[in-house]
Give the backbone structure.
Amino acid sequence: MDDMTTLTRLRADLPDPTPQALAAARSRLTERIDPATARPGGPAPRRRRPAPWGRVAVAAAAAALAAGIGVVTAGSGSGSGSGHEVATPGAATGGGAPALSLAATELDLAAVNTLKSGDPAVGPGQYTRVVTDSWRGEYVDGISFLQKGRLEVWVPADANGTWYWRESGRLGTKFATGADRRYMAAHHPDAFRPTVFLASGHNGRQDKALPADGPQPGGCVVTATDRRRPDQACVSPGPDWDFPTPAWLATQPRDPQALLAAIEAAQPKPVPGTRPKADTPTLAFFQIAQTLSTGIAPADLRAALYRAAVKIPGIKLVSATANIDGRKGIAIGRLEPFGYLRQEILFDATGGQFIGAREVVVHSNADVAHLPVGATYSSTAVTVSVTGNPHLF
Amino acid sequence: MSSLSTDRTDADLVVGEFAALFDRHAVVVHRYLARRVGTGAADDLLAQTFLVAYERRRGYDRSRPDARPWLFGIATNLLRRCQRDEVRQYQAWARTGVDPVAADHATRVADQVDAAAAAGRLAGALAGLAPADREVLLLVAWGQLTYPEVAAALDIPVGTVRSRLHRARAALRAAVPHLEGD
């Protein structure tokens, strides 16, 4: 008898599931299927008068938005308008996994898969290249439109090595109407001219930039998540959640509860007496999306970030086949205060890789009144790879 | 099993009749889950497997008429959350000679003392395997998937399936030397 034959016989005579167990599992499935099949695809897009572009989140939340605000017609359609949570009913687990909501299950799987996938090896002299493709909203003369941008950051394997940045702006535009486009072409042709900004620096700080009107030596740290204009004066902060470095991220907690507490502690406190558009859970979810978007969080921290997200109230599985820029994945979402937008993070179903983040309109009102339900309000796609020195300078 | 759906491929059922997919495969998926973590845990994981599969149905590769590798892949993924319990059970089996998962049932894996001892040693070897190697080994031995099916289930190359299986079997043979490999 060989090893496989012996192994094949082990536990071969365990009983099949009882009819009751099968029926219970089947009814959990059919309960899930029925409301889904009964759900219409959402209301037909309504033409609305374009409204002035509204920044939905408070400034702090806006800074935390991964890469700008934009409007992209939902590409996938599937599931983008169906935020819902199905709690898996408790069942006799017999010491197995606890019953979790599907959102929690997917995030936990993403964490497990992330740890399994690990990080690509970045050898001496090599770089982690993080590409962030985003659509950001612009507002000129009463016209709201979208511009596509790409930020590339090369992070050296050597902590003392040179960082590089290339920010390409105005790579594409989307207008609500042909009239808007014609108006912009006639009055603001610059809106269609691509821009390129290059910089190099150390430890996440830029110290050399082209063109010359970019950040000056010792000026802004620009990361994938920085949304300040290059010419805006700013103090050069140390590494923090908004401007992390690999060394700083290495010092953050890996315990999900402690990590969430650290993230929440770093968020601005709501002003008493106001109805904040971004409360602490909202900001924490943004921060998790933002930190994942930097592309430089190591696998154990990414796994902890997924598990920290599980602990944020209100998370829901939005879709298992959402996509950003054609990359499909699991979308976990959370309704923002006031209920107009849903924040979402997307990750790969198999390897747990972070794909990107976006905001989707769930209630066409107020700041997003000009957008149909289901439209994407902001979108960021993140790609991480290992490269050599880009030699931008 | 629904006789109405016998002439339809799994790809058809994934799209149009998901509950029928459950009827077609629930027992084999449960059988695999039960062998990994016991019947009680399998009852819950079976439901979770199909719930997750349902959520991911739009990502199903419709060129694949058989959904088993896909379902086993999801089940295997879910089992990773139970890894510690699973390994503990193998360890207890190796230590006591009694399979904690099968102990509740009237029938035993092995009645003969020799076979029981071999089973215990195999369980000890299972406990010691790298999780990725164990997944491949048990998808073949207990899930009865072919190499290409394992590759599809885990989304890894067939060559990786072969090398992991080879490593796992070498560990088994080292643990139970009188079992000759084929």
